[in-house]
Amino acid sequence: MTNLSPCPKCQCEYTYEQDNLLVCPECFHEWNPDESDNAASDDSTKVLDSNGNELANGDSVIVIKDLPVKGAPKPVKAGTKVKNIRLADGNHNIDCRIDGFGAMGLKSEFVRKV
Q: Which letter, b or e, does each residue of 20-46 get, where b requires 16 or more Cβ atoms within 10 Å of its Cβ?
């Protein structure tokens, strides 16, 4: 039995060879085992705003739509500028501090880079 690498997306161990590619039977991801693994991991760690611009720690962003805040009587209004963001892992991939609301997490799909 050959020792094939697990799927880089879902970590399934039941990968198989097809032509010169490896294929995952669970998520159907195909990849070339000869290519470096660094390129795949770099793509997954990029955080993009609503326009497709890459975000980095310390950037300033603008909220593009009204966002309701759980437990607050008013939403974060569209056009609110947020300075000095920090990127985080998880569903809400931006940690920030907004005047009038305090510390919170935002999704990158609802902001644009300044």
A: eebbbeeeebebeeeeeeeeeeeeeee
- Whether residue 2 contacts residue 14, with contact meaning beta carbons closer than 8 Å, is answered with no
**43-74 pLDDT, tens per residue?**
557 899 999 999 999 999 999 999 999 988 99
pLDDT reported for residue 34: 82
How far is Cα 20 from Cα 23, in angstroms, rounded to an integer? 10
Cα 12 to Cα 24: distance, rounded to the nearest angstrom: 7
* pTM for the structure as a whole: 0.62
How far is Cα 65 from Cα 56, in angstroms, rounded to an integer? 21
What is the DSSP code (8-state) at residue 71? T
